Amino acid sequence: MLLLAGWLVLSCWQPAKAQDDYALFRAEAGSASLLYRGQRAFVHNLLFNGTYYWSDPGFRPGSVVYNGKRYDDVSLNIDAARQDLLIRIPGSIIEKVVGESYTEEFMIAGSRYLNLRFLFGEEAPAGYWRVLHDGPIRLLQQVSKRLEPDLDGRKRNETGYDGVYRPNVYQVFIQKIDYCCLWEDGTIVPVRRRRDLLKQFDPTLRRDIRRHVKRREGSGLMSLENYCTEVLRYVETR
Fold it and tell me: Are strands 95-98 and 103-108 parallel, antiparallel or unpaired?
């Protein structure tokens, strides 16, 4: 009888506790609770060097435009290996995936990211793209990660990550960076080298761009990212 009574008390207490936990979660999540209903973030359950996150494991404050509504004051990061937008449940370490098919854009620590397929259809590049230059022509960047073997530790500089690199771990996430330009009419042009951007302009403007960049570079050489940003800023002044 004592066991039965104990079981009855416990069975009554557990639903009440679950309700209390859910009420607490709803209170902490606020109006953004819809964002936390996605699937649990994928667990990369193996030893590796580098990171699968866009830059580092830290979640930072941001906002999301999801299903046409903006949600502010949420903690976000990006799984760059899977191109998943991740959100951390308030008061916990649980990470959820924000549904890509409903995510238009988001901000993380002041940086804006676009979902090009949501905005322009399935022909657009997949994944999330960070806005590096926002103007009539936007310069976008995508960071992706790929797991590779690294038996001798030679790929450390390819991770894009400054964290601890363990010599006895033989798998590493390698970073790949892609760029594209987004025109006002929705045209998307991949940019892998300088001439990919340069050939988008008429010959007279190309000549002026070359002269301008040469003056700006001096004896050095700009990175592709800096070159594209400089070109777009110059074109906007014409």
Answer: unpaired
The side-by-side arrangement of strands in the sheet containing 171-182 is 95-98, 84-88, 69-79, 60-66, 103-108, 111-115, 128-133, 138-149, 171-182, 188-191
Q: Residue 108's closest CA among 63, 69, 57?
A: 63
Kindly tell me if the per-residue pLDDT of 72 is higher than 60.
yes
Neighbours of 235 (CB within 10 A): 18
- What is the predicted pLDDT for the residue at 220? 83
Is the Cβ–Cβ distance between 84 and 100 less than 8 Å? Answer: yes
pLDDT score, position 94: 95
E-state strands within 29-187 = 60-66, 69-79, 84-88, 95-98, 103-108, 111-115, 128-133, 138-149, 171-182
Question: How many whole angstroms separate alpha carbon 118 and alpha carbon 105?
Answer: 9
pLDDT greater than 90 at residue 30: no
- 186 in helix, strand or coil? coil
Task: Give the whole-angstrom CA distance, residue 37 versus residue 34.
Answer: 6
d(C-alpha 191, C-alpha 197), whole Å: 6
pTM for the full predicted model = 0.86
* Burial class of 52 by CB neighbour count within 10 A (0 to 12, 13 to 18, 19+): buried
pLDDT recorded at residue 39: 94
Reported as a single tens digit per residue, the pLDDT across 176-227 is 999 999 999 999 999 999 999 999 999 999 999 999 999 999 878 999 999 9
